[in-house]
Structures are given as C-alpha cells and as structure tokens.
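Quick check before the chapter quiz. The format below is the same one you will see on the exam, so make sure you can read both the input and the output lines.
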Amino acid sequence: MGKKSNTFIAKKFEKECEINEKEAKEGIHDLIIILDHLKGNFNMGKIIRTCETFSIKEVHIVGTKFFDPTIAKGALKRVKIYWYDDINSSLERIRNLKYSLIAFDSKADKFLGQVELPKKSAFLFGHEEFGPLCVRENIITSDDYLGLKIKQFGLTESLNVSVAASIAMYEYIRLHAIDS
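Here is the expected output.
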C-alpha cells in the first residue's frame, strides 16, 4: 500500500474515532467485548462490525492504536469504544460495572456452551497468535476470570479471532437476547 493510501486510511480512522467519541451509544445487550493487543489488521474492523450488528454494550480496545476502519463498514462510528494502553484500566471498569470476565483461550478447559454465561459478561479476546496478553503475562489469573474455548472437530488448532468473537457473541445473544 502506498504512502497516499496510508494517509487516507489514517485520516479516515481519526475522523471515525472523533465521531465515535461524540456520537456512539451503548448497545442494548449487557455484553462487553475486550480486545487485548490484537493486531491492527482486518480482524478489528470485523469484530466491531459484529458488535454493532448484535448491539453489544461497549468495546474495550487495549494496546492497539490503529486499524483500517474500512472493514468495520461504519460501525466504528456507532459502537461505544473505550481505548486503553493497558488491561488494568479496562478490568477496573469491568469490576466497577460488576461484569463477569470470560477469557477465550484455546488452552482453556471448558467449552462455550458448557457453562451458563452471566447476563453481565465481558468477553476477552487476545492476539491472534498468542491469546490474551494479560493471561500470558499473569496480569490476571484463573481466579479473575472463567476461561472458555470453542469446541472444534478438525485438526486446525484455533479459529480466527474475528470468527471466534462472532461465535461467542452469537451464543451470548442466543441466551440473553432482548426483544426489541
């Protein structure tokens, strides 16, 4: 991608973030999505677009400073987003709001669908290759969260993070959907 394209995308990102700060509203469902140090590639936009589709309360973006907003198809302007440099500020908000933290990790012992998802849930998704940074670096321990993974039947070790987030959000909405 050329310099001109990068400048256009950066300006678009900046403008959509400004609109987000002024106009975005919380979604109707009591689910928070935390994206912990994801790569700033197309997965970010896809997840935000899915959050808008399912009317998720809010999204916390931890450690990622930039991504191409084009993939979000305008959802970046509508989904309530909080930006954090580190996970502790996000976790403080989660605790203050009395949400249950659920970390999606391919190394977890329990599967999505095996446990009751609390109405006030915060789903944590991490880096596409390494999982949540806060789990890897023991910033949070298994006493702080419930670890879940998505049951798979093929040989591939893990799902793409945007696919995993979509499946998890769908399961939450299936269980707790608000008729509107």
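If your answer matched, good. The beta strands are 29-36, 56-62, 81-84, 100-104, 110-111, 121-126, 146-149.
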